[in-house]
Amino acid sequence: QKAQIGVTGLAVMGRNLARNFARHGHTVALHNRSYGRTKELVEEFGHEGTFLPAESAEQFVASLERPRRVVIMVKAGPATDAVIDEFAPLLEEGDMLIDAGNAHYADTRRREAALKAKGLHFVGAGVSGGEEGALHGPSIMPGGPKESYEALGPLLEDIAAKVDGEPCCVHVGPDGAGHFVKMVHNGIEYADMQLIAEAYDLLRQVGGHSPAEIAGIFTNWNEGRLGSYLIEITAEVLKQVDAATGKPFVDIVVDRAEQKGTGRWTVQAALDLGVPVSGIAESVFARAISGGVPERTAATDAGLPGPAVTGQHAGDLRADVEQALFASKIVAYAQGFQQIQAASKEYGWDIDPGAMAKIWRDGCIIRAKFLDFIKQAYDKNPTLPTLLVDQYFLDAVSGAQDAWRRVAVTAAQQGIPAPGFSSALAYYDSLRASRLPAALIQGQRDFFGAHTYQRVDKPGSFHTLWAAEGRPEVDA
Ligand code: NBP
After folding, report:
1. DSSP assigned state of 21
2. pTM of the full predicted structure?
3. What's the pLDDT tens digit per position in 381-401?
4. Which of 8, 19, 33 to mutate to test the pocket of ligand 1 (most atoms within 8 A of CB)?
5. Counting beta carbons within 10 angstroms of the beta carbon of residue 219, is it exposed (0 to 12), middle (13 to 18) or buried (19 or more)?
6. pLDDT of residue 233
7. Per the CB 3.0–4.6 Å rule, which of 12, 172, 222, 443 could disulfide with 178?
8. How far apart are CA 190 and CA 197, in angstroms?
9. Is the pLDDT of residue 256 over 80?
């Protein structure tokens, strides 16, 4: 008996993916650097399906039917290269190595090119949904050669989350496209989390609501257009009471948000592509500020002054915060999708943005009702320049903007940091401005560096002779 698929790397993610394949009736070959994990899996979960445990890479490879499909689920980075170096010499033309870890898309591009030269298929597959997703149905974003999807896609679609019977898995595009999209997914997740945190902070500090009351507000919002996994779990976290102290859980946790790096990668890639993902960037920086302990301590020790929190707000705070949250979320997603489209163009990936919204509707951390509208927007117009001009989102943002501005004002006046809300609003106002002060920046650049500028009234490049005896002359 041969296995349809093999998984090497059987820590929590790999183990759950292997079990998921087995539960769907596939025979799964198992391998891990140290045999202990393989043995443990078979002992604990062997009854869930058919597993072929292997003690060596050779035995593992021999137990797979052809073309061999080897899922790698090890710690991203050098471990992935080590596993590829171990397996590539044992594989034959047409076999597939599928990296399901959180690789950087540039590494995936490099690995795919190197393995292609050896006649092997390398598929960088983004897998979202954490350990629960891996077991019960993740959202899967496979890249790599299109032809490998023919042999691999049906298996991945089998174990993926489903919405109305449709799998949350699609071939994203060639080489690093899958890992790129997974990275942006995580960047959007950072922004979503930051915006939710700002909403909580305003409701607590300005609104004077307790964490338990705010949990109720989020539960209520979860029934509406904000309905999503992150809103749902936020309510759960806010409801939680610390058993030892009887205090709200959120009050006994140190307020320093950590990060593993995919948010930072998203912003780094966006800078290279020249795409303004300010919402994601603010959320990465907000985590950095929270963790910047020496500066925070110095600032509080020095007593940097701020206004009093009066609790006043020129409207219904709860309703206004919901609007600000929704509008800012739209901006963050609009920016993330713009980044995907820019990368798709840069690398020739031909990514269908609507399909990405479709496969994020379940199985992943940013799953939300909202994604249906994004899918519809791109179905209507695949080359939509920004989600903000799609009618649904345009209506939502128009309806929200007064409340959004009131929330930004309240935050600024009462000294409550809301970088996500305010930068999203600034982005919105920048996009809709008929004139931006960038004209002045062009003047400055031409002044100190003769960088030239373009005119509004005629074509061409111009430079002004700024220093000419105090009387500017224009040199066409
Ligand atoms: P870890 O990231 O903790 O990696 C542990 C696995 O890597 C073990 O199987 C270990 O083997 C193996 N490994 C290491 Br470390 N170095 C190795 C080497 N040089 N050669 C061969 N194997 C090596 O596992 P995880 O938490 O299950 O995550 C796996 C991947 O999934 C990572 O890329 C991670 O970023 C990603 N991830 C994704 C999500 C998500 O939501 N999508 C969540 C969590 C993780 P050993 O047993 O012999 O030490």
Report:
1. H
2. 0.96
3. 988 999 999 999 999 999 999
4. 33
5. middle
6. 98
7. 172
8. 11
9. yes
- What pLDDT, on the 0 to 100 scale, is given for residue 470? 58
Report the length, in residues, of the chain: 476
Give Cα separations from 399 to 275, 309, 394, 403, 433 (angstroms). 26, 27, 8, 8, 18
Q: Do the beta carbons of residue 365 and residue 189 sit within 8 Å? A: yes
Q: Which two tokens stand for residue 359?
A: 């496969």
Alpha helices in 31-142 (DSSP H): 35-45, 57-62, 78-87, 105-116, 130-136
Element at 245 (helix H, strand E): none
Nearest Cα residue to 472 out of 463, 376, 326: 463
Predicted complex ipTM: 0.97
pLDDT in tens, 335-366: 999 999 999 999 999 999 999 999 999 999 99
Ligand 1 lining (C-beta closer than 6 Å) = 9-14, 32-34, 37, 73-76, 79, 82-83, 101-102, 127-130
The alpha carbon dihedral of 405, 372, 345, 160 has a sign of positive
Q: What are phi and psi of 316, to 5 degrees?
A: -85, 105
